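pasting for ref
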Amino acid sequence: MWSALRRKNPPIEAANDDQPPALDARALIGDLSREASSLGRDAAEVRGAIDDSIKAATAQAEALRELASQLTQVTASQQAIAGEVQAGTGAVERAREAVDAVGHEVSGIVDTLREVSKAAHQITKIAMQTRLVAFNASVEAKRAGEAGRGFAVVADAVKDLAGRVDESSRHIMETVGRLDERIGVLARDIQRQDSQQRAQGAVHVALGEVVQGVERIRGAAGQSLAHCTGLGERMGAIEGEMNRTNVTLTSTLNRTEAFLRVSERMIEFTAACGIETADTRFIGAAQDAAGRIAAVLEDALQRGKITAEELFDEHYVPVPGSNPQQHTTRFAPLADRVFPSVQEPMLQVDSQVVFCIAADRNGYIACHNQKYNHSQRGGDVVWNTANCRNRRIFNDRTGLASARNTKPFLLQTYRRDMGGGNFVLLKEAAAPITVAGRHWGGLRLAYRF
């Protein structure tokens, strides 16, 4: 840049006799001012782009950490599934053992029923013999005539009882037969494969299918766990890369700060030379407005409208429900009354002026320009960010530098966030506001290139 300026503006010693050296100096300083302004614009644009990249990378890293946390939970769940599958396999095996035990018991029941059937068969035989004896006794009683009548009654009763015993015995044998058949089916269903490779029962077949299903679940859980573990390792590597990229971007952002400061110092230098530049009228306007804000605040102090303690209040009380966050202080009502009379006319100094505000030394804006001084809308963060800039603390690099500057003036270049992803490239002239010998804050006058 300097070599270009030398080519465009030869040294004063080499100036023509027709052109005074002062004109060469003015032209050189004018070129320097324009070059510095262009450098500031480019540096601000680059800085803004890097800052956006850092925010995006930070958000992505945070999202990745959240995803990694969820993946850890999934992995823990998969491990729990594997444990439950193992327990399920053991439970199925215990069920098989229980079924085997039931099978043995069923076999014993079958044997007992067969014994009962045999006993019933014997009872039937005895009942038939008893009926035969009772029949013979009845015949003999009839032969005996009147003397055997009582014996005949007994013989008939015995014969009748033998008949009922025979009927009951046959019913028992039929019931035992049906029960034996059903228990046989159950026994076949619950039996295991024996040494002769006989087909397994239905219960063991079902249990085998359960075991196979459990094993498939175990295999799927194992594969899922392996995938989750591998994915977790890859996500860890990606997060590491993102963190390193973030560090690099932050370092680059810090370096752009140096370029931006060089540009701003060059602009200040050219402005301090007393030569008219594109920034001169804005610097003068900022200094004039700062003096008038200081005057109205001192007048308020002298008239007792506010105390020094209230005017320099740094206790910022959050406004409930505000988004972006707003705050109140004890000097905010006074600012609402007196600041607009100074701030609003400054918007008419030039069509390039975007805003003119007084900030305390911590970047707190009690009263913004009226077009940005609206009440917030509930839930509409984008609109609030762009239109409700009062009662807010702007303690970013530019805001704090302007608020805490004590030099006659300060020039800065930056991108202003208007909300909703809308940014405006601005240049800002700031002048200190001193009240009763104390630095109260700064007057910020922002304008477009």
